[in-house]
Amino acid sequence: xxxxxxxxxxxAAVESRSAPPISSRTRTTLDPxxxxxxxxxxxxxxxxADDPRGIFSLAQGVVHWRPPPSxxxxxxxxxxxxxxxxxxxxxxxxxxxxxxxxxxxxxxxxDEGYPPLLSALKDKLEKENGLRDPHVVVTSGANQAYVNCVxxxxxxxxxxxxxxxxxxxxxxxxxxxxAVQSARGGNGCGGVAxxxxxxxxxxxxxxxxxxxxxxxxxxxxxxxxxxxxTHKYDTGGNGIRMVTLVNPGNPTGVSLPYRFLEExxxxxxxxxxxxxxxxxxxxxxxRSKNKLPNDGDVRNVEYPCFDEEHVINIFSFSxxxxxxxxxxxxxxxxxxxxxxxxGAECYREMLKVQDTIAICASRISQMAALGALEAxxxxxxxxxxxxxxxxxxxxxxxxGLEEIVGGxxxxxxxxxxxxxxxxxxxxxxxxxxxxxxVIPGSFCGLPGWIRxxxxxxxxxxxxxAAARLREGILELTAAG
Length: 480
What we know:
Layout: H1 4-18, H2 24-27, H3 33-44, E1 56-57, H4 69-83, H5 115-129, E2 135-139, H6 141-153, E3 165-169, H7 174-184, E4 209-212, E5 214-215, E6 218-219, H8 221-230, E7 240-246, H9 258-270, E8 274-278, E9 311-316, E10 329-333, H10 342-357, H11 363-375, H12 377-384, H13 388-397, E11 403-406, E12 412-416, H14 423-434, E13 436-437, E14 439-440, E15 449-453, H15 459-479
Parallel strand pairs: 1-13, 3-4, 3-7, 7-8, 8-9
Antiparallel strand pairs: 2-10, 5-6, 9-10, 11-12, 12-15, 14-15
Helix pairs in contact: 4-11, 5-11, 6-7, 6-10, 13-15, 14-15
């Protein structure tokens, strides 16, 4: 007769055997660092309760201003159209099939986006980015736009039976790496959640990811050409399927010159590889490095992008238009070769992904985005100029570090801590002792560094936060 202990053991064994597993890809995907930093801030919030300013965040990449009034006016008008007695008649409005009726704000719109917004975006893309009549898919933020690219372009098994690879450059934007890790594997590609590879293969070239080097935030194109050549198939294909570049850079804060971008565009074209350009920070090219003088090669547009079949451009309303919570981004593909072109084919296939993930981006958010566009690029530039005081204060505060990178694009500066310093412990100490939060570089594949954002506080507050940061850096680095 079995004892109670035997019964307990048998029960535990049954419970253990019946526990449903969780994807190993998810388990080895980087933790969301902004969420973790917010937890650290919450943990120490009471300690700073007596300070009227509390803990300053220089961590998450947001802006200190609000969306343009025209965005809220668009919302007000849309709501007004939907609250009258006639609004309850005909559940999807008179134009429900095409999604252009304001009275149908409760309804789905086409997968690719709200038609009036699509029309306005195509006009913007031609005038401001030099992209003529492209294919556009409106997404729930630029992160979903990138996930759409990952799921549309990368294979579990390519023509040689290999997992097709995506190139990112270190330091990388953590959500890009997380997208590839969770969708296509990439165990051990840097950062705090990376598990050691049991096979002993270099952690930076496992499964779906290749992580390339940079020098002061500038990608190494010699390395890239070497990798493209190494992964080239004699059939004409390539084991590398896509190369990702963020410009101006997150997390580097470096804005790359147009001619450099042109070189990487031509290189990826030569090897038949997709180039995914994340232009989320198009309004934050501080020194206008991407603005090419009117020399006849490109039209004199504000932020020129490449209208090439192998180039996919990503944009966002979250930064310049301060609409992060509305979650509106868009992915853009070339139509220059018509319906039979690679861009058109990718667009058609991407709509399958779009329909699976979101069906469509929030219709009311798209209406607000349409209103925001009415404010125009100069409205954004006026607000970006308010960052200059804070940018200088942060650069000055970090001047005591051995090396700093960035500050001329996007809204970030990266700084190298003394050798042997744990960037996560350093960031935690900055919150606890000095009341300022930053992002540890290990989340971006660069341990021993920190990323600092200078856009999320008004100028006067940013200068106070910079003073705290300076004090923290001086004292913590001196303490070893």
